[in-house]
Design goal:
The chain contains 11 helices and 19 strands. It is globular. Mean pLDDT is 95; it is low at 1-12. The two termini are 33 Å apart. By secondary structure, it is of the alpha+beta class. The strands form 4 sheets. Strands 11, 12, 13, 14, 15, 16, 17, 18 and 19 form a 9-stranded antiparallel beta sheet that branches. Strands 4-5-9-7-8 form a 5-stranded antiparallel beta sheet. The protein has a 3-stranded parallel beta sheet with strand order 1-3-2, with no helix packed on it. Helices cover 23% and strands 23% of the residues. The structure holds flavin-adenine dinucleotide. Flavin-adenine dinucleotide binds at residues 21-22, 52-59, 63-64, 73, 92, 114-116, 119-120, 122-124, 126-127, 129-130, 174-175, 179-180, 296-297, 387, 389. Residues 21-22, 52-59, 63-64, 73, 92, 114-116, 119-120, 122-124, 126-127, 129-130, 174-175, 179-180, 296-297, 387, 389 line the site of flavin-adenine dinucleotide.
Length: 433
């Protein structure tokens, strides 16, 4: 039986309450158990009636919360690279930040990363976490195998090759199927990237040239506070292989190249941001916006994000822009990113290319909670799906309408967890309600 102790990995003092990364959520249970092996994890599963696994705690809502027990696999972080089949198998506790240099050391890369490398692979894939790039699927689209412990304490192994639709249902599992112990990811030969930031792209140019802007490099992020009909920054991440390199013109659809490194929130210093100005570097030091070892984003904040089908992107963004005077007072920054379609049942990009409209809010839930229904209503005609790990107020009935594979997902989850060992308030309300 794993001993219960305070994990140094969380730097959690006994006097402090265990919270999520941004501190907006105090977990309902303070009972945290760390396991260091598959046997210990199986033993924990068999002995407990109801609990949740914590990854790196970067979700903004109560998806990882438990009133009973919390389990951490953060100390299980071994990596095994199969160069021949171009796959890496990782233990569930590892973060992208720890995995990436190990892949680089062996000459490999992942296809994409989120804005920050600090998050766990298992937690990120469970919520369909994504980066940017119209040809890039979200991070879970790189998963080719998954190993988890079901409610009976048995080890279940699923692969993309052998398990077809069951696999597609399990990867973005929202923590509902079991305790993920290993994840296998597709890898590719390492690549070099360059990153540029352009300032002040007019909304009129965006409206007219959205497709061309998105097609101009491997990964594009547009930042705005919705004021003055412009995107304050465009982050352009380009691979450097022949034919792929961004030409870095002096004028990019009316925007101009920045002359120093910038933070997405113009007023903040860029020390925690990845290198810009077209300086070449390895993929894992350019794909995220934020560097490992530094606080990503702003810190004390809230986040929401809605995914609309690619063909609705411009109309949906203009609909949000019309709400600017309600949004901006509570906003730090918004970001627009493209994500390629995938086959994963609970992914917001299931069978549809998407554009994600993201909001980093000031940490003011009373006001943000009043604004979210307004934004959700505005995005409803465009079939906006919320990010599972961020804040939303959409009703469970609406979620069922827009996540069309939800009935199949519920069946799959019940098969592995018939009595609701892995359920919590979030899952009971949004999925099983
Ligand atoms: C500053 C910041 C920037 C962000 N940027 C992005 C971004 O660019 N793109 C994006 O899409 N999202 C982004 N996010 C959101 C973030 O990526 C997701 O919330 C992600 O789920 C975080 O992973 P985690 O390990 O912290 O998950 P946690 O919050 O710890 O857990 C998430 C879910 O996964 C489950 N889980 C975790 N580990 C396991 C396991 N081993 N077995 C079973 N279930 C497990 C938990 O129970 C829970 O249901 C950002 C968040 C922050 C704070």
């Amino acid at each position: 039986m794993a001993s219960r102790f305070v994990s140094p990995l969380f730097a959690w003092m006994p006097s402090e309450k265990l919270t999520n990364w941004s501190g907006n959520l105090e977990y309902s249970s303070q009972q945290l158990t760390n396991v260091t092996s598959l046997d210990q994890a199986q033993d924990f599963v068999r002995k407990h009636k109801n609990f949740k696994v914590l990854g790196t705690r970067h979700c903004f809502n109560n998806i990882a919360d438990s009133k009973n027990e919390l389990l951490s696999l953060r100390q299980m972080d071994q990596v095994s690279i199969d160069a021949e089949s171009r796959k890496v198998t990782v233990e569930a506790g590892i973060s992208y930040g720890k995995l990436a240099p190990q892949l680089e050391g062996k000459g490999f890369a992942l296809h994409n990363l989120a804005s920050l490398p600090h998050i766990s692979v298992a937690g990120a894939c469970s919520t369909a976490t994504h980066g940017s790039g119209e040809k890039n699927g979200n991070l879970s689209s790189a998963v080719s195998g998954i190993q988890f412990i079901n409610a009976a304490g048995e080890v279940v192994k699923l692969t993309r090759e052998k398990d077809g639709e069951t696999f597609n249902g399990a990867v973005v599992g929202l923590g509902a199927l079991g305790v993920i112990t290993k994840v296998t990811l597709d890898i590719q030969p390492t690549f070099t990237m360059k990153q540029w930031v352009y300032e002040n792209l007019p909304l009129a140019q965006f409206k007219q040239h959205f497709d061309a802007i998105e097609a101009s490099a491997y990964s594009i992020s547009l930042f705005t506070d919705w004021q003055n009909q412009k995107f304050s920054e465009v982050w352009i991440k380009s691979r450097t292989e022949p034919g792929q390199e961004f030409p870095a013109p002096k004028d990019f659809y009316g925007s101009t190249p920045a002359t120093k490194n910038l933070h997405p929130i113009v007023e903040l210093g860029a020390e925690n941001c990845t290198e810009q100005l077209g300086i070449p570097g390895p993929w894992f030091e350019r794909l995220p916006h934020f560097r490992m070892g530094f606080t990503p984003s702003a810190g004390k904040e809230l986040q929401s994000e809605f995914f609309v089908p690619r063909q609705n992107a411009v109309d949906a963004i203009l609909a949000v822009e019309r709400l600017r005077d309600q949004i901006t007072p509570h906003l730090m920054i918004s970001e627009i990113r493209c994500i390629a379609a995938d086959n994963l049942w609970m992914s917001p990009a299931y069978k549809q290319n998407c554009v994600a409209i993201h909001f980093t809010w000031k940490q003011d839930w009373p006001n943000v909670s009043k604004l979210l229904p307004v934004i959700e209503k505005e995005l409803a005609p465009y079939k906006g799906r919320p990010h599972w790990g961020k804040l939303f107020t959409m009703s469970p009935a609406t979620l069922k309408e827009i996540y069309t594979k939800m009935p199949d997902f519920i069946e799959l989850a019940k098969k592995h967890d018939p009595k609701g060992k892995f359920r919590n308030d979030y899952l009971n309300r949004n999925i099983f309600g």
